[in-house]
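User: New here, any thoughts?
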Amino acid sequence: MDDKNVQFEDAEGFTYGGKDKVQFKDIVLEHLRKIGIFGSCEFTGGYWHTQERPVSIGSTTTVMTTKTYIPDTREQYSNAVEYMADILFPHFDEEMVKAEERLKIEIEEAYEKYKDETKSSNRNAFRGERVTICRKLFRELCSFLYRKKYLEMGSMSD
């Protein structure tokens, strides 16, 4: 490949397939939608679901066991909110930087309080407290987007 042909696309105006334009705003709004889905379900711990079913192979029947991991919805929600903060971080105003730092410290303190991961009750308590802190973070992110008039504008720099 000739080095003279290398070009960089503007991330705000990147198109794929030549038809649809994907903008940063679309990514943020799609992620907000996902957080809404994660946040509006029952928060449950992850677990392994075991299912046994008979399988016939030739003239013999055997039992096949499958194990499927059902994700911890508390972790899904918390991770989604923290990811949202990560992608918006370069655009944070001073108020959001302070809020994010304060809540990050709260998560670290909760982790220290429950860090004995050998106890299931500690893991569950930490995950529950992390969800509570991430809900605060999500509210701060929504307030930040409101301050930026994000739903009214074309990009974060407007």
About this structure: The chain has four helices and four strands.
